[in-house]
# Entry
Amino acid sequence: MSCNLYKGRSTHQTEDMEKKREEEEEEEEEEEEEEEEEEEEEEEEEEEEEEEEEEEEEEEEEEEEEEEEEEEEEKNHSKKKAILPFILPPYRSFTCS
# Structure
């Protein structure tokens, strides 16, 4: 005869209760595994979002730098245009009359 853990109950009832407990434990383990998988997926999604945000920020910074460089080039070019007439005399001064 097997050891009866539950006093006053038959071996059959005890076995049924043990099976139920085992099934409940298995279900709990499965639920925990599912929760862990969901948490991992959420973490991965958050990491991907962070990476995308970082990439967007980098792109914005690059665009701003390019715009600043273009503005500086335009300023330098306009300065050259303003200085150029003073450096080179008009064409007609080179002609002989």
Q: What stands out?
A: The chain has a mean pLDDT of 82. The two ends are 135 Å apart (CA to CA).
